[in-house]
Amino acid sequence: MQNTRRIAIIGAGIAGLSMAVFATQQGFDVEVFEKRSEISQIGAGVTLWPNAMYVLDKMKLTKAISEIGVQPCSVQQMNQQGQVLSKLDLSQLSQQCGYPSISILRKDLMLCLYEQVMQLNILCHFNTPIDSQDITKLASQFDLVVGADGRMHSQVRAAIFQPPIEPIYQGFINLIGTSPTPASVKNNPIQEFRENGVRFGIVQATADSCYWAAAWACDINNNYTTKQCLNEAQCRFKHWPKAINTILHTANMHSCNHIFVHDLEPLPYWHQNNVVLIGDAAHASLPTSGQGASQALEDVWHLTNLLNQHEAIPDTLSHFYQTRINKTTTAQTIGRHLAKQFFSDIPQQPVKMDPKKLRMLWMQGLTSPNMLS
């Protein structure tokens, strides 16, 4: 991309801030535009799998992230009685991939990224909602406009696609939050309980706190409050293991949120002229994929490296899409497949978790000799 130095990023979430940091580290002149008045604290936690940690290592953030978060020891799939049905040793996965997995509160990850933004003197315009006219203006002022403005109401996606492509409801609700870690949750496992179309996940995120998600199939109810959702979860999981009940009754209410979960169909392209989508705005997947943040970080790494190859804008953005579409579509497909299995009445079978196969899937494309490191 010839003389492409100035980048406008719309959205200051994980994808937007990461893009701002890495692109600035690579010598680009970046500005961020965010509709909120400050960095978002919304969201409970994130597990950064080895592919995400690969990118964060290139951003020189491995040490900071590892000091804030927790390295989980395993993933345990369990039934309603708390019986372990299958287990993945994450130390084996780390050895296979060359990078660890780190679980972290979302607010801590956001603050870590924003601290880097401030240290790099990246200009952030808060209280700046962006509409289609603004996008046109930014596209004339900057060499590249990056839409990192989320799955649900992406103004950049709406500007690229006419009629706008809307997210699709996938039939279940997620109640998320943080709580003190129950004494029974030891040695930092990721625990996933599933039975009879209901799911509960627990992830240690700091020395003394965890984030969690309760999920079940339902119709959308726009009058439903988070408090009502928490009350329903307490009833639904009343006869499940003690740790779940402890978490639900000690939840930090300010951290809780209920989400009627949507995703996107794979898009036929992610760009128009010098405007491009990344992260959930481009390829939102279900939380059952476990890859939302990781795929956003991969976008950042690939796009920035391709920009450094100084190709013309159409070629760069087309190359970016072709590089990423298969892997992001796989994450979307896996998320839907698992959700269909989890939120049905069919007997639950543990998901097969093989470290070698996970390495092949997650690390694919990250060590290509054609890419800069």
From TrEMBL:
It comes from Pseudoalteromonas luteoviolacea H33. It comes from the Bacteria. Keywords: Monooxygenase, Oxidoreductase, Signal. The keyword Transport does not apply. The keyword Signal applies. Residues 7-308 form the FAD-binding domain. Residues 1-23 form the signal peptide. One of its GO terms (molecular function) is FAD binding. This is FAD-binding domain-containing protein. InterPro entries: FAD-bd, FAD-dep_Monooxygenase_BioMet, FAD/NAD-bd_sf. It holds the Pfam family FAD_binding_3.
